[in-house]
Structure of Transcriptional regulator, MerR family:
Amino acid sequence: MTSLAIGALSAQTGVKSPTIRYYEEIGLLPSPPRTDGNRRVYSVETVRRLKFIRHARELGFEVEAIRQLLALADDPQGSCAPADGIALAHLRDIDSRIDRLTALRDEVRRMVNECAHGPIGACKVIEVLADHTECLHDHH
């Protein structure tokens, strides 16, 4: 079995050493065995698992969802329905954030476009920020 030092694991996965140690602390990665000199040594399986975690983080999955997905991945004969459910919930969250950001962008664009660029007393940006009822959207 090939074993890797933390630097080699970091180089193969693109995950920095402090992040690798953090993932160990929170249980996403198992604690690795150590050498007589107390250095961590990682297996090739850890490379696969860490790449999985990194990709899931890049896609915006939260740590708890990743923990659940890893547990599902550890049981290849299990149903993928729970994984689909986790991904669907994440997709709904992404859609919700996009909706809120779109409303936010529209509101700020409207404030800027309606500003007459005159004295501050007539500034639409200041007016809207001071009075939420001037906004087009209730939530943003």
About this structure: The longest strand covers residues 3-4. The first helix runs from residue 6 to 13.
